[in-house]
Each structure stands twice: as structure tokens, then as C-alpha cells.
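Dear support,

I submitted the protein below through the web form. The confirmation email said the job was done, but the results page showed an empty box. After a refresh the structure appeared. I'm attaching both so you can tell me whether what I see now is the final result or a partial one.
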Amino acid sequence: MTDGVAGADGSASARPVSNWNLPNALTMLRIVLVPVYGWFLLGHDHDSILWRTLAWGVFAVAMITDKVDGDIARSRGLVTDFGKIADPIADKAMTGMAFVALSVTGDIWWAVTIVVLLREWSVTLLRLSVAKDVVIAAARSGKIKTMLQVFALGGLTLPGRQVDGWLDVPGDVFYYLSQAFLAAAVAMTLWSGYEFFRDYARQRRQTSVG
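What the results page shows now:
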């Protein structure tokens, strides 16, 4: 992608934005963290408080960089074609790993994971494949879906059912609260997917008519 840069005489000149920039580096960091999260959660005792906490830390860092890299790219004019492709892939890779890992540990039903991943990757791949011809703005429902997924997956990664003593009851409450977030996230995931395909069909009809 190119970005207009003012020259010494005040005129704007087009200069390509390098892929070697901070936002893209943060995106790549997020991709690297995907197997780290999986190893922390699945490569050890699934009920280990330590390893679940470390996995949550990795997940939290990934979600924070997801917000930060987009803000930096837009504010500093560092949006690139590579970033447009890599960023959603990094996001879906991390949440996908979390869904699969938490299904392995028994915290999320496999049916839920399969339905969510089918929706997420079908939307992402379609959006990328038609990006040059059809532009579909991110809907509010998609942003709500992402927020609910982050709360649900982060909460279920933490050792809620694994703690005992005085944390036993609060841990159970936290675990079931995370399950409630998951239910809301699944509902919003399906609804936002419906909205996306509906808007895509409308755009295609308008393009063919025009």
C-alpha cells in the first residue's frame, strides 16, 4: 500500500510503505505466540495452575498486541497489504488455537469449536479473496463478537476449576461466568457471520447491477 508523503516543496509524493515496521512485527509476534500458548496449555498437566496462568499471559499479550498494532499502523500511516492479510490470520490463528486447546482440556465442547472455526475461517478467507472487488466494513456485531471471545477464552484458560481452598468457590463462579461469555460469543459469532454473508450478497448484487 502507498501513503502520501509531503515533499520539501509541500507537494505530496507517493512512497511505498515498507513491510518492515512495528505493526507488522507485532503481528508476527502474535503468530509466534500461537504455538507457545498451545505448548503451555497442552504440553503439560492440563490442570496445572502455573502452566494455565502462563498460557493466559501469552493469550493476553497476543490480544493486547492485536489492538496496539492496528492503532499504530493507522496513526502513523504504516498500513500495508501484508498487514491487511497477516493481521486477521494472526487473530484467527490465536483464537483458533485457544478453542482447540480448550476443547482438548475439556473446557469447551468440540461441537462449539468446530462451528466457530468454520464461521471464522470462512469469513476471513472470503473477505481476503474479494478484498479488491468488494469492501465490507467491519460490523459492530463483529467487534462485540471478538470482545466476548477474548473474555471467554481468556477466562477459560485461567485455572478457575483448578484452584482450591478459599479460592474454590470464586474459581467456580469465574469458570461458569466464562462459560456464559462463551455462550454469548458463540451466539454473536453466528449472528455476525450471517450479517457478513448478507452484506456480501448485497454488495455483489449492487456490483453486478452497476
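Response: this is the final, complete result; the empty box was a page-load delay. The beta strands are 2-6, 12-16.
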